[in-house]
Every structure is written in C-alpha cells, then in structure tokens.
C-alpha cells in the first residue's frame, strides 16, 4: 500500500510526542476543515470562518441567491445576473482583509479576534433585508407598504431583524453556538450596530467603546461613504456590466490607517491616495449614470413597482415573484401580469428626452451625485502623510486636481411617451412629443 503523504508544514507536528502538540495538531486539522474557501471572479479565493459558513447555510441567507444585485438592470444589461449572495460573501471577505491590515500595522489598536469575527459577520449580513429586485422595492414599494403597515422599512433595519432570526435559528440547534466561537450577547449587539453604521457624533453605541469607533466605518461608513460594501459592488458591478473601474480598492486597502481626528478614531488613508479615493466616488457616479439609473432601467423598474396595494403585503421573499405573478391565474393579479408581459415583450414607454435641471423649483426625476449630494465627498475623508503617519486631516484644495468638477451632483428630468406598440400613428406622436420637449427645454433652460 502506498504511504499516505502529509503536507510538509505538518510533518514537524507529527514527530512531536507531547500531548500538548498533539492537541495543537488536532486544532489545526479541525480549523483546516472547518474554514471554507469560496472562489469567485472578483476576489478569487475567499476563506471564511466556520461561524460565517453556518450563517450562509441558513434559509435567510440562501434567499440572497435569488435576489439580483442590480434588480431590473438585468433586463437591459444581460451580464448583470449576479446576486446579493456573492456580493455579501465579497463584503465579508473585504471586511476581514481591512481589519487584518489595521491589526497588523497598528497592534496598539488592540483589535481582538472577536472584533474581526463580528465585523466579518456584519459584512456578510448587511444585505439580508433586501427585497425582490433590490433597491427597486426600497425606493418605490416599501414606502407604499409603510403607509399600510406604518412600519420602518429601510433595508439595513430589515437586515438587523433578519440577523436576529438567524441567531435564533442557530441557537435553537445549538444554544452555545456563539460561545463556542468566543462571542456573547454584547457581540450580537455590536454586529447589528455595524450593519446600520454609526450615524451620530456623540458616542451612544453599546457594542464597543468609542476607542474602537473606527470599526463602525468598515461595513457601513456613515461619515464619508468609504466602506467595503462600496469597494465590492464597484468592482463586481463594473465587472458584470463591462464598465471600466478606475478605482483600485486593493491599493487603498494597503494604505488604510487609524488616526485620531477631532477626538475620534477614524480610518484614514495616505495623502497620495487622494486621486484613488476620488476615483471611487467617480466610479459610483458612473455606475449610477450608465447603469443603475439608465433611462431604460429606470422606466422598467418603475413599471415593475406598479403592483396594486392588495399584493404589496404578500410580497414573496425573492425575485421569483416575477415568475410567480407571470404564471398566476388569479384575477387580482391580471393587471400585474399585463405589466410584466409588456416588460418581457419590450413594449416599454418611448424615451422622449432628458434635460439637466438648473433650477431648484422644478420637480426632478433622477438625482445623480458622487455619494454626498451636492457636497464634494472627499472633503469628509481624512489623510495622513508619510512623515506624520499618526496625524490626519482633510485634504487641501491645492493637493487635488484642478480638473475636478465644480458641482458634484446633477438633477435630471426625463420624459417618456407611454405606448404599447410601435405603429406609425404612435411613432408620429412620439416625434411630436420630442419636438414639444425641445421647445420646453429651450424656454426653460435657454437652449438654442
């Protein structure tokens, strides 16, 4: 019989006879088999902690396999069939990478294994609360449901509720599941706070003390919008859309550092990375302009949200609602079936035109910005220098490119002609609508 071979790195352990080393060997072997490696096109090999694997194996998390990351954008860009499941794995992985960089470069931060695990879990679970078609329901349907149920519907808050359900499910199977991985009830509170992000300057959070406030900026950064959630979807969405991504999150990761600014510990970056940070915000704008709020994507998603109030209270937990409604024979769903049938057959309203608004008193349809409305988002990012790595401040104007835009948001009005087919009579009406729109633009915006 051929002798079984072992990895060379384990041979010294096999030669040791003490009970202690045998115990350590068993721990290493157990860890090798408990950790799971996920492979993907963006981050390649992602190793996740056993507790994260247990979370991914719950029905609440598996549901994310059936929710497309970009909702109705798939009906315009066929490559965007990726889902919330793989995005969540990516965010968990990047969250772990960032915590490890900070821990290795700054041991005095006293980042514990529990801190690392909690941040990774928050990254994994941050999108649990997404409804079918992702942000379509956030912006259009959930507000209507709130009118009926008078309940809060923001997806972060729903993610927290879903995470509570997962914890209950895991504890029902094993009451000590958290304790076995070094976590307790305070850590559960911490994870839920991380999912929602720290929104106030006054420290009111219970999961960790203010000296670890920087951990609250990793998954959902409410201070300046630089977080691993944005890093993952920027890379992932650009990849599937075929849009060039000029932002290098791997490089920025290497220059992350915690500095105390205005009495609070913040994640800061090297001053020479200012252009890279701006590219991140610019990429966000590009994704919104070319994909998320594409003229056809918008109208498809608006149409998708046109289900009557009787159906909104019984929304299915995933994108399968599309097929369920399409195949239903219920009289109550006839109007919804007709709407979805028009989408599939591309019988969509005809795009007439769009104009960038210059006056605040005109109702807008589409709002595009770099992440912080009209404000330059980079003003809220802190940078340190090579000579003073422990001191950080906002970037100076003269340190930024003079080619940056004067405005960081724009408001668009879009006009569509509602039609069901492309017969000659309707096409003439579309042409007339386009002429009327041009006249309106000229009179309102002094266009010639």
UniProtKB/TrEMBL annotation:
<dbReference type="InterPro" id="IPR003607">
    <property type="entry name" value="HD/PDEase_dom"/>
</dbReference>
<dbReference type="GO" id="GO:0051607">
    <property type="term" value="P:defense response to virus"/>
</dbReference>
<feature type="domain" description="HD">
    <location>
        <begin position="84"/>
        <end position="234"/>
    </location>
</feature>
<protein>
    <submittedName>
        <fullName>Deoxynucleoside triphosphate triphosphohydrolase SAMHD1-like</fullName>
    </submittedName>
</protein>
<dbReference type="InterPro" id="IPR006674">
    <property type="entry name" value="HD_domain"/>
</dbReference>
<dbReference type="InterPro" id="IPR050135">
    <property type="entry name" value="dGTPase-like"/>
</dbReference>
<dbReference type="GO" id="GO:0005634">
    <property type="term" value="C:nucleus"/>
</dbReference>
<dbReference type="GO" id="GO:0006203">
    <property type="term" value="P:dGTP catabolic process"/>
</dbReference>
<dbReference type="Pfam" id="PF01966">
    <property type="entry name" value="HD"/>
</dbReference>
<dbReference type="GO" id="GO:0008832">
    <property type="term" value="F:dGTPase activity"/>
</dbReference>
<dbReference type="GO" id="GO:0045088">
    <property type="term" value="P:regulation of innate immune response"/>
</dbReference>
<comment type="similarity">
    <text>Belongs to the SAMHD1 family.</text>
</comment>
């Amino acid at each position: 019989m051929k002798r079984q071979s072992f990895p060379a790195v384990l041979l010294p352990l096999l030669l040791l006879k003490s009970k202690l080393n045998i115990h350590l060997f068993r721990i290493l072997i157990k860890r090798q088999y408990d950790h799971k490696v996920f492979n993907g096109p963006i981050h390649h090999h992602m190793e996740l902690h056993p507790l994260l694997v247990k979370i991914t194996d719950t029905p609440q998390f598996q549901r994310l396999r059936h929710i497309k990351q970009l909702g109705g954008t798939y009906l315009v860009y066929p490559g965007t069939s990726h889902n919330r499941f793989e995005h969540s794995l990516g965010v968990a992985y990047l969250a772990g990478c960032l915590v490890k960089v900070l821990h290795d470069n700054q041991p005095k931060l006293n980042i514990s294994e529990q801190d690392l695990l909690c941040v990774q879990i928050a990254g994994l679970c941050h999108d649990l609360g997404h409804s079918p078609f992702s942000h379509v329901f956030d912006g259009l349907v959930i507000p209507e449901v709130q009118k009926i149920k008078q309940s809060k519907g923001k997806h972060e808050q729903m993610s927290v509720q879903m995470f509570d359900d997962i914890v209950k499910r895991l504890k029902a199977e094993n009451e000590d599941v958290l304790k076995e991985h070094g976590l307790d009830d305070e850590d559960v509170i911490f994870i839920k706070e991380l999912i929602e992000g720290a929104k106030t300057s006054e420290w009111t959070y219970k999961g960790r003390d203010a000296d670890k406030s920087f951990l609250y900026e990793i998954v959902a950064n409410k201070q300046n919008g630089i977080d691993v959630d944005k890093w993952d979807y920027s890379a992932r969405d650009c990849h599937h859309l075929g849009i060039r991504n000029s932002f290098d999150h791997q490089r920025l990761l290497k220059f992350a550092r915690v500095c105390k600014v205005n009495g609070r510990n913040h994640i800061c970056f090297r001053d020479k990375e200012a252009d890279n940070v701006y590219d991140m915000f610019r990429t966000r704008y590009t994704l919104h302009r070319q994909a998320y709020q594409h003229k056809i994507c918008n109208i498809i998603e608006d149409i998708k949200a046109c289900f009557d109030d009787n159906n909104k209270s019984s929304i299915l937990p995933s994108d399968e609602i599309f097929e369920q409604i399409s195949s239903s024979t219920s009289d109550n769903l006839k109007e919804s079936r007709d709407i979805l049938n028009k989408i599939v057959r591309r019988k969509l309203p005809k795009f007439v035109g769009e104009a960038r608004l210059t006056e605040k008193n005109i109702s807008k349809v589409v709002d595009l910005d770099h992440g912080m409305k009209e404000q330059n988002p980079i003003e809220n990012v802190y940078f340190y220098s090579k000579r003073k790595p422990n001191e950080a401040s906002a970037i100076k104007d003269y340190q930024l490119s003079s080619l940056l835009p004067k405005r960081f948001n724009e408001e668009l009005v879009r006009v569509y002609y509602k039609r069901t087919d492309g017969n000659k009579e309707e096409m003439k009406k579309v042409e007339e609508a386009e002429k009327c729109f041009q006249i309106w633009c000229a009179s309102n915006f002094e266009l010639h």
